[in-house]
Amino acid sequence: MNITVIIMMMIMIILQIMISGTKCAIDEFILDEEIIRNMVKTFGRELSSVGTEQTCLGRIEENFQRFNQEVQWFDGNKMMDDMRNDVMYMFNWKKHSVERIANESERIASNHTYDKNMEIDYYNVKGVEIKDNNHYLRSLDSGSRPIKLTRNTNFDNAYVNLDHSAIHVPVNVYDKSPDVVNDIKWSEHLTQFFKNNLAFDPSLSWQFFGSAKGFLRLYPATSWRERDSYSDKPLIDFYDCRMRPWYIKGAASPKDIVILLDTSGSMTGVRKSIGQNVVEYILDTLTDDDYVAALKFSKTVQPIHSCLDTLVQANRKNIKEIKQGLSDVKTNELVDFTAALSQAFTILQRFNRSGDGSQCNQAIMLITDGAPGTYEDVFRQFNWPNIPVRVFTYLIGQDVTSHSEVYWMACHNRGYYTHVMNRAEVHEQVQKYIPVMSRPIVLSGERVFSWTPIYAPTYETELNENTWKNKQNYEKINRLRAQARYAHEELDQSLNNADTDDDNDDIDETIDNTEESEDTLMTNNGNRKRKRHHQSIDDLAINENDDGNVVSIPYKQIPFRIQQQYQHQHQQQQQNQKNMKKKSVSLYTTLATPVFDTRNYTNITKRILIKNVYQDAEIETIRIANLLGVAGVDIPIKEIEKLTPSFKLGVNGYSFMITNNGYLLNHPDLRPLFDGFLKPFYHSVDMSEVELANNTLGPREPDPYIESIRGNMINRTHGWKKVAVKVHIDEMKRVITRVNHYTHGMIGHTPFSLAIALPEPYGSYRLTSQVDLRMKYREENFTHYFRGNQWRVHPEWAYCDNPHQITGQPQQSFSTPEESILQFLTNDLEKQNFRWRTSSIRPKVYETILCDKDLIQSLVLDANLTDIPTERCSSNPNYRDEQRIKTFGIVSTFVATRSGLTRFKDYRSKDEIKMLDDLPFYHKHDRAIEETYYKRTVDFYTNNKDAFVYFVDFDAGEQHERRVAATHSRYDSNFLVTATHALFIGNLKHSSPVAVVGIQFRYDTLHEFFLNTTNKFNVPCTHLDVDCYLIDNNAFIVLSNHKTNDVGKFFGQIDGDILEELVTSGIYQRVHLYDYQAICLDAEIVSGPSSNPYLYSIFALVAKMLKSFITWLGLLYMNILYGNDVWSMAEKTYNVRQDNWMEMGLPFGSEYTMITDLDDNQTIARPCDKEFDLYEMINFSTDGQSKDIVCGENPKCSRNFLAHYIPHTNLLLIISVNNPTCNCQKKKLSIEPIEIKYDDEKQCQLLKTEKYRRRPAGCYNYHPQEKEIRQCGRAYTLSSTTTWLLLLLLSSSSSLSLILSIDYN
User: Fold this and answer.
1) Where does the record place Acidic residues bias (predicted)?
2) φ, ψ at 601 (rounded to 5°)
3) How many Å apart are CA 624 and CA 197, to the nearest integer?
4) Count of C-beta atoms within a 10 Å radius of residue 674
């Protein structure tokens, strides 16, 4: 008993000693705020001194300050007006071109003599062939000589031929039909007028004529570019110009459409499927200027989508919702046509009287398999005698017996009747209502112009469930193949080298993504050789071995060291892809106008059905109002942006344009792509979704100031307003709050309005001083300021335009923008062979070089003022450049200016630069005022004029750790800290940003300098229980005393408790933002056997083995019949093996390679709204803050932290003392956007709420002469024999078009 007591007492004594020791250790870290204040002053002053002297900030500022009296306020309204007029003039040039196409089309068509036996040859956009790396376009006549295509940057860098136009024919149009052949024939004369238009306006992009017959004549001739299908199966080209928005808007005025889908008991099976397809195609013909209501009716009338029970704007979101509602359509026994028609008329009348909707055309689309009557009393009540509502009827099914009733409905209500017998006919039959809608405008003869919202080329892939799933499967297959092949090659090499060196380091060799070597390796059988290619993962999946086989081994047999090596290589490649510049997409708007058949009458030969045979009857002259097609020109959005250049708007200034619906044409925050796919609603992003006022309103709640600007722009009024806004930057991880000054005005003769936004207060001031090149070129050698190769200019700014660069004529080309600047200064300036670019109401004539006077003269001035030798940067006579570089690990310095000039100096050797994973900073970020670092630095200057802005790459610490693990070396030339400082000149608030200087440090040397500084002041940052962080003005970690892995991370992710205290104390502010262009990824829920990856793999394996065995038996039988050549042919063509049939059906070898990779989660991508919090430092007081954070519920258990601003920087020092006796769980904060979940009621409200819009000018919905037109479709009954014959003929697209030509034109 005594022994037990003694032991217990000893344990208590030991515990007391440990606790006392720990308490002493904690008490030892009492942080003296005065000492820390002195420490941060010293640290900040030292960094500022190094940055100022090394970047020549002082000298450059002195040079610019000589011109501080020339900083002047400029009139933003005048700038906006000048830009607005330039855009308007450009649009007028395009309008002139499309008008000429339409006029000449009408003239040529009227003079054309129809020949039903005509044969024609034309260049088909799909007839491309490649010979010797040259692209050619074939014609239909195999005997004709192909035309050569060359790349042209004016046409989206496509291969084109400027001497010819080409034809695109949809799959559902028979190009040998006499009507199509004759129209192709006369339209070939348009080529010369296309060429004339290009000569008049060299900035013209694609010109085209879309025929009502379905074909498209496109200039210049080009090859049709296919979308990326992410599949081995070829894509079917469903493009039909008649279904494009530019054609539909050009052909007819806006419309209100009520769709009535019959869901009675007879509309089941195939009929139901055809009816749903008809609804979908009708919806596809609607534009943002139209309104639609989709109803289903049987005994009762109900909306197809439960929320959309009335007319709503036919935008993509509403169309998508209606289409999704179609999948829930159920059929019932009874049908009530009276109720359905009455409700449709009631909806249309209500909107017409209230002033809502399109206030133009109105129509009812009736989709049924037959009606028991004509319901004349309903039409008499609602529609007669004026017939404001057209009725289009679609009779569904091939074996229907009653057609006269629905035919009567259409013909007596200014509509059209069509009979849709199967799904193959839906596409062609649905669009027949468009020419009927166009009759009033054809009869008027008015030249009406229409404009589309933005759109991307057809070869860009849109994001939907199928394309996203295909991409995931495609990447998974490539990943598995690459892993297996990589592992096999490494094992192969290690086995070959094992005879000479068992510990050969070649096994650890990584794949080089940039260089390709060809080392000869022996295959396993030893009698064949193949080449080893060092390639990226994607390349490995595409390029096969010489024998065509994908050689692989089971993943479980791959040594762990090689698995690690592959994982590092794969992660490195992913990081490289992330660091690459984001893919951009070319966006366009189209200007279109209808082309009329100028004939008022035409002769037709009636055909009647006698004993299942069509026979010609008498010739009849009928009244017509036919649409020949639509002419149009594409206008690249980049052409608009050229006329509103960023160098005129200044840093953080920008322009944007909106349509009459409030949708964006361009905006710096318009993000049309997600992972390379076009977002579903990229063309209908509203201005209010990207211009976010700095308020506390909830999601989708309109801000009155932003809505006021939007409304004024839609109403085409001039005005200005200042609004406090919040702007996300840098991959939506940083935020800036500021005041923007908006100025806006209309673009004449278009539905568009232009606005410019300038940041307050510096955005309204400019340095006006320049070098007068014309006066001083004889006195001064300007090229002296551009000596050497340590300078760059903005690669996309048009300092000067060379003659003929757009028309494709021979010209002097320059490999870099810098060469063109030197050429101008050394040659063109001396010879005075240039003109200053001016605003003009006519297109520019490129007879000589056109230069931007303000831009290039500012560039020469900036080059002069920043041309300072390093030895002159410091005023200290004892300053030693080499010592500072070594002490602080300086690797480079740079300066970027307002004119797009970037100067740099790199202190690393060429070998060190070559070892970098990415381009040096000054090469990667050579766009000066458009770069994020430049924008951040200038904005931060308004908070602290003396500060350098420090930052590192996101997740830089993690990347560093991966490189260290791969190279087994702590030295990492890629791990850098960048600091930048803005340079303003002027007086007081009347100052303007002119440049930003920068310096880069090695992280390890800066880290060492920080710890040395803390040790001098006895600040315990070297102790393991103390965490010291330097975080930037957006709360990202720039430096950590112990945890290198945390560098580049959001501080709230590491210690959210401290960050929340900093927000509470007013050092940081939390800014709540919304992303209305977001994409959400939902986990795909798989049911059945495939939900278990291992069970699925067994089923898949059995199925593939069975397929392989059947194939092997078939080949064996053929081999008996035809000899052994069958096997050799099968091995080369189909990758089969005679000796092992089991390998034939396996995707990656003799085993199902890497079965663990099958459980990768598949996702479904969909558009959604997201919200997120970002952080911004707002208090730069030198007073520190110290506080205890209680851990959990025990008030005695806490940890202490101190925060102190570091002068002359954007950094905050955080010192956190951890208490090892307490289990303190640190809170985690996130800045990742999360989805906003709307309930059903809110979702319905958002769908039905229509934002303010303005209707397009002009409406053509009636013409008195339309009463003379009798064509309203054909009604006839086919016998069973004819029906089966027709189905047989419909198996080919040519027969389909032939059958469709039975109808009147």
Assistant:
1) 499-519
2) -135, 155
3) 31
4) 18
Q: Which residues of 227-240 are buried (b: 16+ CB within 10 A; e: fewer)?
A: eebbeeeeeebebb
Q: pLDDT for 136-171, tens place per residue?
A: 998 877 667 899 999 998 898 899 999 999 999 999
Report pTM: 0.85
Q: What range defines the domain where residue 301 resides?
A: 253-437
* 1110 or 805, which is more confident: 1110
Which structure tokens are listed for 96? 């002139």
Q: Is 219 within 8 Å of 199 (Cβ atoms)?
A: no
Task: Report if residue 531 sits inside a domain.
Answer: no
Pairing of strands 588-596, 627-636: antiparallel
How far is Cα 629 from Cα 101, in angstroms, rounded to an integer?
A: 11
For residue 1083, which of 1159, 994, 1171, 1002 has the smallest C-alpha distance? Answer: 1159
CB 362 within 8 A of CB 337: no
- Give the Å distances, CA to CA, from 1053 to 205, 1069, 1085, 1178: 49, 16, 30, 20
Of 865, 899, 928, which closes a domain? 865
Count of residues for the chain?
A: 1305
Question: What does the block give as tokens for 1120?
Answer: 């008996």
Residues 218 and 275 grouped into a single domain: no
Please count the other Cβ atoms lying within 10 Å of the Cβ belonging to residue 616.
Answer: 9
Q: Report which of 939, 980, 845, 746 is spatially closest to residue 47, judged by C-alpha positions.
A: 980
Eight-state DSSP code of residue 1043 = -
Amino acid occupying residue 1156:
T
CATH of the domain at 348: 3.40.50.410
Q: What is the DSSP track for 323-376?
A: HHHHTT----S---HHHHHHHHHHHHHHHHHHT-S-SSEEEEEEEES--SS--H
Q: Which of these three, 1128, 1160, 1192, is where a domain ends?
A: 1160
Nearest partner of 211 among 239, 191, 183, 190, judged by Cα: 183
Instruction: Tell me if 923 sits within 8 A of 951, measured CB to CB.
Output: no
The β-bridge partners of 1204 are 1213
pLDDT value of position 1147: 42
Do 1053 and 1010 lie in one domain? The reply is: no
Name the domain count of the chain. Answer: 8
43 and 178 assigned to the same domain: no
In contact, 992 and 762? CB cutoff 8 Å: yes
Instruction: Judge whether 536 and 470 are in contact, CB under 8 Å.
Output: no
- The per-residue pLDDT for 93 is 94
Distances 307 to 367, 536, 1238 between C-alpha atoms, Å: 21, 49, 14
Q: Which of 34, 42, 43, 62 is nearest to 950 (CA)?
A: 43
Determine the Cα–Cα distance for residues 1270 and 412; give it in Å rounded to an integer: 10
Q: What is the pairing mode between strands 123-131 and 134-139?
A: antiparallel
Residue 3 has pLDDT above 80, yes or no: no
988 SS3 class: coil
**Token pair listed for 1214:** 């955080």
Is there a cis peptide before residue 1020, judged by omega within 30 degrees of 0?
no
CA 911 to chain CA centroid, Å, is: 37
Copy the structure tokens of residue 947: 């500060």
CB atoms within 10 A of CB 203: 18
Give the Å distances, CA to CA, from 412 to 368, 374, 389, 406, 442. 18, 10, 11, 10, 21
Q: Is 604 exposed, middle or buried (0-12, 13-18, 19+ CB in 10 A)?
A: middle
The Cα 90–Cα 935 span in angstroms is 30
Query: Could you give the maximum distance between any two Cα atoms of the chain, in Å?
Result: 130
pLDDT digit string, tens, across residues 815-844: 789 999 999 999 888 888 888 988 877 786
Name which of 702, 735, 706 is nearest 721 in CA terms: 706
Q: How far is 259 from 296, CA to CA, in rounded Å?
A: 8
Task: Please check whether residue 965 is in contact with residue 953, taking contact to mean a CB–CB distance below 8 angstroms.
Answer: no
**Residue 693's Cα: distance from chain center in Å?**
24
Segment 903-950, tens digit of pLDDT: 999 999 888 888 888 889 999 999 999 999 999 999 999 999 999 999
Quick one: 407 and 313 in the same domain?
Answer: yes
